[in-house]
Every structure is written in structure tokens, then in C-alpha cells.
Amino acid sequence: MMLKAYKFRLYPAAEQKTMIAKHIGSCKLVYNWALEQKIKSYEQEGKSLSHYDLNKRLPELKKEHEWLKEANSQSLQGMTKNLDSAFTRFFRKNNGFPNFKLRKNPIQPFPVPQHYTVDFDNNLSKSLK
């Protein structure tokens, strides 16, 4: 069995650029908020919060920041899972402690786990699931 990988470059329209920027900002805020929550919980109670605990607290954060509702909720939950993975790597492999995400970082990844569609130049539409 041979695995193939494809790499695409996206050229979003102005409206799409705005939507992507909002999505990246939302994911970054949730990641930084979750990191802060984990640090506070460990300092105050000596317990670490799992990504399930953090996901339960996300609705409160959305009430605080109404604009978070514009982002895909599964992407926001994915950021708490990414943070959990970062802590696992920190403790198992003695990698560095997870850092807060900065605005100036040129690489801003975020998960998109739901169904989505990509329109190619030749007007073919491929649904990725």
C-alpha cells in the first residue's frame, strides 16, 4: 500500500481572508486561555485540567467573548486537545513547556475537523470527509 499526500495553495477572496483571520484569532485565544487555566489550576489546586474539563468551560468563555461563536466549535475544542498533546510531550519527552501563541508568528495552524469543500481551478468540487 502506498500513501499519497497533496499540498495545495489557497488564494482566498477578501471576505474569506477575514473569516480565516477571525478563525485563527479565535483558536489562538482559546489555546492561550486554556494554557492559562491549566497553569492556574495547577498552582492553586495542584491538579491538571484535561481537555475534557477545558471543553466544559468553553461555553462560559463564549458568553464572555460573543465573537467566538463565529468560529467552528470543533476547531476551538481541537485547540484544547492540541494543548493537552503539548503537555503530554512536555512530560514524556522533556520537550519545552508549552508557550502562549503569539500574533506575530507567521505560521498560524488551526484544526478544521468538519466536512468542507475545496473548489479547484477546473471547476471541479471535491468534498473532503
Describe the 3D structure.
The chain has one domain. Helices cover 52% and strands 6% of the residues. It is built from 3 helices and 2 strands, in the order αααββ. It has a two-stranded antiparallel ribbon with strand order 1-2. Helix 1 (14-45) packs across helix 3 (73-93) and helix 2 (51-64) crosses helix 3 (73-93). The radius of gyration is 17 Å and the shape is globular. The two termini are 21 Å apart.
Q: Which structural class best describes the helix and strand composition?
A: mainly alpha
The percent range for strand residues is 5-15%
- The tally of strands reads 2
Alpha plus pi helix count: 3
Fill in the keyword field for this structure.
129 residues; mainly alpha; two-stranded antiparallel ribbon; 3 helices; disordered C terminus
